[in-house]
Specification:
By secondary structure, the protein is α+β, with helices and mostly antiparallel strands. It contains 3 helices and 9 strands, in the order E-H-E-E-E-E-H-E-E-E-H-E. Strand 3 and strand 4 form a beta hairpin. This is PLD phosphodiesterase domain-containing protein.
Length: about 160
């Protein structure tokens, strides 16, 4: 097996988990490379192909409530509250889900910040099928990405 990915662990916010996987791949002898332009997500195993919209990370199966914060360049709190009320009426959003408040910047004038109760959730599609011809085509495509001039080996500090 081989792994080709878009970024190394050093380019991620949570470097720890990705670095663990890179080190594990290295010490188990599984070659892995990086190509910053590749965003394809597929697996070929024998004659089985899996094509997905999912990144292969632990967060793909995450779910949780969180407050989404949006900063604005507007200093008129009433204006933003009117927009929120209009949206609540139009979409039927519960009244306590979206609120606006003034920021307290160290420099400059206060601005309005909007906070919305939301749910973080990844929604992905997985298509898995068995087809030897497609598997061969996808394997050849992977080989072309693997040997592309932009694909580089992942360096592991030992």
């Amino acid at each position: 097996g081989r792994v080709l990915k878009q970024v190394t662990s050093s380019g991620l916010a949570d470097k720890r988990r990705a670095a663990f996987v890179e080190t594990h791949l290295h010490y188990t002898g599984i070659p892995h490379r990086v190509n910053k332009l590749v965003h394809d997500k597929f697996i070929v195993a024998d004659s089985t192909v899996a094509i997905t919209t999912s990144n292969f990370t632990a967060t793909q199966f995450g779910w949780g409530e969180r407050g989404m914060k949006h900063k604005t360049d507007i200093s008129n709190l009433g204006r933003i509250q009117n927009v929120i009320r209009s949206a609540e009426n139009f979409f039927g959003t519960p009244r306590d889900y979206v609120r606006a408040l003034m920021t307290r910047p160290r420099k400059g004038l206060p601005k309005v910040k909007v906070i919305k109760k939301d749910v973080f959730s990844e929604v992905n599609a997985f298509t898995i099928f068995e087809d030897p011809d497609v598997a061969n085509q996808m394997a050849n495509y992977f080989d072309s990405l693997w040997s592309h001039s932009l694909s580089k080996d992942v360096e592991i500090l030992t």
